[in-house]
Amino acid sequence: AQKVTQAQTEISVVEKEDVTLDCVYETRDTTYYLFWYKQPPSGELVFLIRRNSFDEQNEISGRYSWNFQKSTSSFNFTITASQVVDSAVYFCALSEAYSHFNAGNNRKLIWGLGTSLAVNP
Amino acid sequence: NAGVTQTPKFQVLKTGQSMTLQCAQDMNHNSMYWYRQDPGMGLRLIYYSASEGTTDKGEVPNGYNVSRLNKREFSLRLESAAPSQTSVYFCASTDRGLSGANVLTFGAGSRLTVL
């Protein structure tokens, strides 16, 4: 069965600290996609990154970086030098690749329960 | 660009009342989705529409109906609201059909309280 676990329910840091949000997933498929979304206090969910299972390169985008390790089924998200504007709930999600013969199960994302990050001044 | 627009943003209903949540996207996306978000439950898919003219049930469809009015609009109807339907509802859309690589664009959410 597919599953996404974000073990950290809440994290609180002081501005300029680095913080890592953990995401561990389970899937039997060999082809899948992993995502991170951000939900700021305003409420809407915003896409941050998508990674497919064949691309284990780490990615950096400004202060954000992602570490994908298939060996440990993890897709962790690090914010460097955190800022108050980074305060949000962050969701990790898993989607197996589309399959014509199994479309019913592939039409949804499996979401983690989210990690609430508070960055204090 | 407005993206995905949901109305209303807030609504309070009494048990048994009906209401419709409206969603419209202006990105020419083919697929649209309705999710609900509850504390401790994460995001759960209610219904989705792969393309104009089609709708399918998600994980938690009971108590809801949907209409894909045209390519832009996808509404969610509660025929007889129950307190268990108190939640934040999100509409989302994507232009990649049912691919697992879908990136969803979300609306701002509609907070519904059923008394």
How would you sum up this structure, described in words?
- The complex is a heterodimer of chains A (121) and B (115).
- With 121 residues, chain A is an all-beta fold.
- Chain A is 0% helix and 50% strand.
- In chain A, the strands form 3 sheets. In chain A, strands 2, 5, 6, 10, 11 and 12 form a 6-stranded mixed sheet that branches. Chain A has a 4-stranded antiparallel sheet with strand order 3-9-8-7, with no helix packed on it. A two-stranded antiparallel ribbon of chain A has the order 1-4.
- In chain A, a hairpin with a 6-residue loop joins strand 5 and strand 6 (46-52).
- The model of chain A is unreliable at 99-106 (pLDDT under 50).
- Chain B is mainly β and 115 residues long.
- In chain B, 0% of the residues lie in helices and 50% in strands.
- Chain B is built from no helices and 11 strands.
- Chain B has strands spanning 4-7, 10-13, 19-25, 31-38, 42-49, 56-57, 64-68, 74-78, 87-94, 105-106, 110-114.
- In chain B, strands 2, 4, 5, 6, 9, 10 and 11 form a 7-stranded mixed sheet that branches. In chain B, strands 1-3-8-7 form a 4-stranded antiparallel sheet, with no helix packed on it.
- In chain B, a hairpin with a 3-residue loop joins strand 4 and strand 5.
- The radius of gyration of chain B is 13 Å and the shape is globular.
- The N and C termini of chain B lie far apart (36 Å).
- The A-B interface holds A 31-33, 35, 37, 42-47, 50, 52, 91, 95-98, 103, 106-109, 111-114 and B 40-43, 45, 48, 50, 56, 58-59, 88, 90, 92, 97-109.
Tally of contiguous helical segments of chain B: 0
Q: What structural class should be given to the helix and strand makeup of chain B? A: mainly beta
Give the biggest sheet of chain B. Answer: 7 strands, mixed
Series of H and E elements of chain A:
EEEEEEEEEEEE
Terminal-residue CA separation of chain B: 36 Å
Outline type of chain B: globular
Classify the oligomer: heterodimer
